[in-house]
Amino acid sequence: MSSDEQSPEPDDERTRPATAEREDSETGTEQSTGNGQEAGAEAEAATEPEDGTADAGEPGEAGDGARPARSGPPRPFVFVAAALASASLVVAIVFGVQWQSAASSDDVRIAESREAVVAAVGRAVVAFTGLDSANPGEYFRRQKDIATGDLLEEISRTEQEYREPISKAKTKVDSRVADVAVEELNVHEGKALALAVVELTVTQEKGSGTKTLRMQLRMERAPGDSPEQSWKVAGISPVEYGASG
In what order do the strands lie in the sheet with 207-221? Predict the structure, then answer.
């Protein structure tokens, strides 16, 4: 058997598909490589800005070294508004404290004046109702110490007229203040109106007895060494029980 007969000829149908597949695969590889390069070039071109300002960054956009744009009022306006608000709060606090201090001061002054009036009324009632006929001079001295205005002038004018009747009465009157009520008080004008209840014990040669009186006193403030001494009697009169004022 010859060598040509022993080696069969290759089958064209079997060898052609393999060759075609290799060619197709090589062609596909080249196409894919080409497409990849083109896609990469397009992506690179898309990332680069047209005007070449990629490094600088656009205003208002976040980037390396760039700050985001602020919204709202300008910063100086915010600072001024905050300062005005703080100043208003301080002014309100200061005026509130001053008002409270003034109100407290007025309350204290009124309370002190009321106490001074009550004390002065008590002394006045004793001075005008207490009596010892053995010492008429002391009786008038006490009244002149606590009186003011027209009342003081009247006491000084009638003192000599009443000295002798008092001495002959041989009477002693002890007075005790039971109550004092301040009906009206004007601290700024220095005027007050008060009612006093006084209990009298009258002792004479024939015996003794008790009596209760209501007195109305008009008080006026005058310069003095103490708050009690500064309030004087401008008028005094008895008040019947059940009568108003």
Answer: 131-132, 172-186, 191-204, 207-221, 231-238
